[in-house]
């Protein structure tokens, strides 16, 4: 049992390089910014249309 535990100290899975980690972070920030812009755009369009958005025929 001790041998199995000693051999398990190696990291599991894929270990990313620093460049890959930086790339992942930049991509995550870009996605977050794009999502934020989309939310602001939808909010602005809703505010411009005003209460007429709620008064439409079903």
What does the secondary structure layout of this molecule look like, with pairings?
Blueprint: H1 2-7, H2 18-49
Walkthrough of the structure:
- This protein has 58 residues and is mainly alpha-helical.
- Helix content is 66%, strand content 0%.
- It is built from two helices and no strands.
- The chain has helices at residues 2-7, 18-49.
- The N and C termini lie far apart (69 Å).
- The model has no long low-confidence stretch (mean pLDDT 84).
List keywords for this structure.
about 60 residues; mainly alpha; 2 helices; about 65% helix; about 0% strand; elongated
Low-confidence stretches: none
List the domain count as a whole number: 1
The number of strands is 0
What amount of the residues lies in strands? under 5%
Report the end-to-end length measured between terminal Cα atoms: 69 Å
Dominant shape:
elongated
Major sheet: none
So how many helices?
A: 2
Order of helices and strands: HH
Radius of gyration equals: 24 Å
Helix content: 55-70%
Task: Please sum up the structure shown.
Keywords: Membrane, Transmembrane, Transmembrane helix. It is built from two helices and no strands.
């Amino acid at each position: 049992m001790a041998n199995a535990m000693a051999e398990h100290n190696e990291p599991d899975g894929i270990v990313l390089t620093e460049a890959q980690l930086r790339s992942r972070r930049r991509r995550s920030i870009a996605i977050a910014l794009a999502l934020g812009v989309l939310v602001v755009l939808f909010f602005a369009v809703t505010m411009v249309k005003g209460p007429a958005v709620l008064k439409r025929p079903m």
